Amino acid sequence: MPAGEPGEEIQIREGEARDLEAVYRLGLASPSLQPSATAPYLEKDELPGLLRDVLLVAEAEGSLVGFLLAEIYGPLGYIALLSVAPAFHRQGVASKLLEECGKRLRKKGVERLGGFAFQDKGVKRLLLRLGYTAGKSYIWMDRRI
Predict the structure, then answer these.
(1) Structural domain tally of the chain?
(2) For the domain that residue 114 is a member of, what is the CATH number?
(3) Per-residue pLDDT tens for 2-24?
(4) Strand order across the 112-114 sheet
């Protein structure tokens, strides 16, 4: 089946050290993960830290097609990074990642899951459909110093 073909089997599993390079590349290719105009979303030396709390990867036929990184702050799970390869958009990959993340965080005692969503992107529609409620709107600003 060609990449991104509807009905393609998507597997969600815990991310491992061997996945970090593919996660990094997918993140770099995701415009929504680039809030900064001056720096990449993540520096390569930060990759091992992705394994600290919850890193989930989505695979189709052995290829990484999405990932979700959640951080734990007491009773709050924070969706730090969520990305799906364009060929797999609107096929339920993000929904599966979020659902699995919620299950894993509940087992760790986390009571709520949240994160930032772009106002003009499909992720906001997805989160609303999954029962999340919108809070205040923010804009990311930065500069080199």
Answers:
(1) 1
(2) 3.40.630.30
(3) 455 555 799 999 999 999 999 99
(4) 11-14, 54-60, 63-73, 76-84, 112-114
